[in-house]
Amino acid sequence: MNAEPKGPEAARLRQRKFSLLRQFHFPEDLLPGSRPLTHRRCGKPTCHCASGESHPVWHLSFMAEGKHRVERIPEDWVDEVRRRAQAGRAYQDALREVLTANAELLALRRKQRPR
Ligand SMILES: [Zn+2]
Hints:
Layout: H1 8-24, E1 37-40, E2 55-64, E3 67-72, H2 78-112
Antiparallel strand pairs: 1-2, 2-3
The structure holds zinc ion.
Zinc ion is lined by residues 41-42, 44, 47, 49, 55.
């Protein structure tokens, strides 16, 4: 992907991101989202999609401030976005597993505590 986005909103998001990165040390390029490919019909009655195969459309869908967002992805970004989203899921799975293991260890520690 090319240049970083500009403007106050981009600056605010980058600031938030880097303050979290400083606290937690996680990989910075991860993306949320899954199932990036959908198909749609453009609505033109003469288009091949009216009767045959519909057009592939690439999306990144994610939650931001409690709202579900869907952003279109340019086709030449698809491989990178897919790779970063897979890494994001692997990271989330690993984090969940670590938290669960910690909770189970805490429970064991309580059971094993001498009374
Ligand atoms: Zn069409």
